[in-house]
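Our platform keeps sequence and structure together, in a single record for each protein. Nothing more is needed to write down the fold, since each code stands for a local backbone conformation. An entry from our holdings is shown next, in its original layout:
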Amino acid sequence: MMVSFTPCCRSVNFFMNPNRLIQFFLFYMVVSLGFSAAGASANGGIQVRTFQLEVVENDYFVSVESGIELNPTLEQALKKGVVLYFVTKFTLVEPRWYWLDNEVARLKTRIGLRYSTLTRQYQLSDPTFTKYFFTLKEALQMLERLHKQQLIVLSELSKTSDYHATLRLWLDLTRMPKPFQVEALGSNVWNLSSERLQWRMKLPSPDQPFQFSNQQ
């Protein structure tokens, strides 16, 4: 009987000791945070780092730098021949109190990332270019830099107006094969997207481009 009760008494004494109790909770918090950080890294992600809008001879050009990290599931999908399409969308909207807001300009790009088992190379492509890379890191480094893409103007722009700007980058699941789209419905590992950034701005001048930084 004495043997059977001794472990119970020690367990009670451990939790009755305030110092040991604090040590236990601190250890639990450290372990929990460690697992949370590992999970966040495993899920990958997209983060907008910098944005620039400049004007050259009455035309407007957008440049975006981002950070893109693929999780193991997406890397495996690439290896199986699935093409990953990444979308960048920027819009300028004129707010109107008397009617619906008016979208005056936009930019939307869609770039495909694929892997060839035959050549063992990664490929980035859109309707205007195709480039090859020996490593995924090199391909992502280029994908992260959108340089001087021309803004499509939909309505007359005013240099004195205040516009609402919106920017977001994401993995386009609608372009993936149907089985992967179905799987993505119940899993967060397929939902790769930046946060939706919004701000108010005026149009830039030729000697002073508009710049936005989301660096942390």
Notes: Residues 1-41 have pLDDT under 50 and may be disordered. The chain has two domains: 1-43, 45-213. The longest strand covers residues 102-116. The radius of gyration is 25 Å.
